[in-house]
Each structure stands twice: as C-alpha cells, then as structure tokens.
Design brief:
The chain has 133 residues and is mainly α. The chain has 2 domains: 2-94; 95-133, no CATH class. 88% of the residues lie in helices and 0% in strands. The chain contains 2 helices and no strands. The protein is rod-shaped and about 150 Å long.
C-alpha cells in the first residue's frame, strides 16, 4: 500500500505541477496578447494623431494661401482704383468743354459737341494707353 500511496502522490504532484505550468503558460500568453493589443492601440492612436496633424497643417497652409490671395486681390483692387482716379483726373485736365456745349438748345450744336467729346475721348484713350498722359 505504501507504493500505491507513493504512486498516487506522484500522480497528484505531477497533475499539480502540470496545472501550475499550464496556468503560468496561459498567463504569459494573456500578457503577451495584452501587450500586443496595447501596442496596436498606441500605434493606431499615433497614426490618428499624425493624420490629424497633417490635416491641421494642410488647413493652415490653405488658410495662409487664401489670406495671401486675398491680400493680392486687395492690392490689385487698390491699384485699379488708384489708376481709375488718376485717369479721371487726367481726363478732366485733358478735355475742356467748349462754352457753347454747356446745355445747347440747338440740335446741331448738341451733335457737334457730342462728336467733339467722342473724338477727344478716343484721342485721350490712345494717349493714355501709350503712357503720354
């Protein structure tokens, strides 16, 4: 009987050792899987942050380009306004309406004054375009 007790004890001991070994192996696998999952989550978060930073950078660049475009358009508009004002002043200095053309009652004089105005305007535009005024 002593041998049977020793064999039974050996079997129980072997079962306990195998059970503990299995438990420790499973725990190690769980830790490895948990670490892998955490690493994957960190990688995904890192990539998401990188994508968001890239979108933010692209948006900033787009806003800066829009602002620059708007400044350039404002500069062009100011230049065109200044040019139009200079042209208006030059026209006023260039063309002097004859006294007879100020509200004439006679139709022929009106036509003559209108034609004179048109000829003067054409000459002015040509000279303006050549930079003579």
């Amino acid at each position: 009987m002593k041998l049977a007790a020793q064999i039974a004890t050996g079997i129980v001991l072997a079962a306990v050792v195998l059970g503990v070994g299995r438990y420790l192996f499973v725990q190690a696998q769980i830790r490895a899987i948990t670490n892998t999952v955490q690493q994957m989550q960190e990688d995904m978060q890192s990539r998401a942050q990188a994508r968001q930073q890239e979108r933010d950078r692209t948006r900033r660049e787009q806003l800066e380009a829009d602002a620059e475009r708007m400044r350039a358009q404002a500069d062009v508009a100011r230049f065109e306004q200044d040019q139009a004002a200079r042209k208006a002043v030059a026209w006023e200095a260039f063309y002097n309406v004859r006294k007879e053309c100020n509200g004439p009652a006679d139709w022929n004089i009106r036509v003559e004054c209108g034609n004179e105005h048109i000829r003067a305007k054409r000459e002015f535009e040509e000279r303006w375009a050549r930079g003579e005024l």
